[in-house]
Amino acid sequence: MRQPSRPRLGAAVTLLEAGSRVGQNILASGSRRCNLTHTGVAPDAYDAPEFVAPVLAECGCQDVLAFFGDLGLLTYADDEGRVYPVTNAANSVLDVLRLEYAHLGVVERFEFEVALPGHTLSLDTPALAHLRLPVTGTGYAVQAQVTRGGAQLAGFDPATIAPRVARGVFAAGEVLDVDGRCGGFNLHWAWASGIVADKSAVRQGGL
Ligand SMILES: Cc1cc2nc3c(=O)[nH]c(=O)nc-3n(C[C@H](O)[C@H](O)[C@H](O)COP(=O)(O)OP(=O)(O)OC[C@H]3O[C@@H](n4cnc5c(N)ncnc54)[C@H](O)[C@@H]3O)c2cc1C
């Protein structure tokens, strides 16, 4: 049996969102169809294979599909292994997530900026001080599919997604310096690292 998540165990959970709505990238993903994972998820699809390996071992494609299946989401994989909701509508994915956490009593707070502790997310700025990158042009923001960079992985334990220097804090998704190929790998990383962080929080919190 899968380990229940914190809200399912009765923990009070508050979602703090800087914007006025949650899940905007989910809605934009996969040309608004939400390519939520890939049947070929494996460490070598990411730029940090050693870091992602234990997370993917605990939460692979079938685990993510089971997670969403439990929430009532039906999915299919195309010929290239990209997984979409059968509705071909990204809002189906966001809807099942929001219905579940409304059911569990998760509180949403919007336009709330989280202040992250500088020591856990500090960048190696001296090493970058002399870097010069000529800008030759920009694309449209909607063309950008993933944000590169993020918190340095050396500061995190990949087994728990917890910073090595702070207890009770976890990171998941794009805030970590992990990038995957296009095709569902980046959303997979967001779900999988979030699920592993949740399990770690349950273990640490003794719930
Ligand atoms: C147009 C587009 C298409 C994409 N298509 C795909 C695809 O088909 N398949 C795929 O796998 N990936 C795709 N991606 C990438 C994927 O959407 C991201 O990798 C994924 O959403 C990352 O999830 P996340 O939760 O880490 O970050 P986000 O989805 O960016 O969520 C972070 C949330 O935190 C909020 N936030 C940020 N800073 C703060 C703060 N200081 N305080 C409080 N809240 C804050 C943001 O407003 C946002 O709501 C696409 C991305 C884009 C932009």
Helicity, as a percent range: 25-40%
Shape: globular
CATH superfamily: FAD/NAD(P)-binding domain
Tally of domains: 1
CATH architecture: 3-Layer(bba) Sandwich
- Kindly report the CATH topology: FAD/NAD(P)-binding domain
Query: Structural class, from helix and strand content?
Result: alpha+beta
Number of strands: 7
Task: Report how far the terminal alpha carbons are from each other.
Answer: 16 Å
**Stretches with pLDDT under 50, minimum 5 residues:** 118-125
How would a crystallographer describe the biggest sheet? 3 strands, antiparallel
Ligands present: flavin-adenine dinucleotide
Task: Give a written overview of the molecule.
The structure is a single chain. The protein has helices at 24-32, 49-58, 61-70, 90-103, 118-121, 125-128, 185-205, and strands at residues 14-17, 37-38, 75-77, 82-85, 107-110, 156-157, 162-163. It is α+β, with helices and mostly antiparallel strands and 207 residues long. Helices cover 35% and strands 10% of the residues. The protein is globular and about 50 Å long. It contains seven helices and seven strands. Helix 1 packs antiparallel against helix 4 and helix 2 (49-58) crosses helix 7 (185-205). Residues 118-125 have low confidence and may be disordered. It binds flavin-adenine dinucleotide.
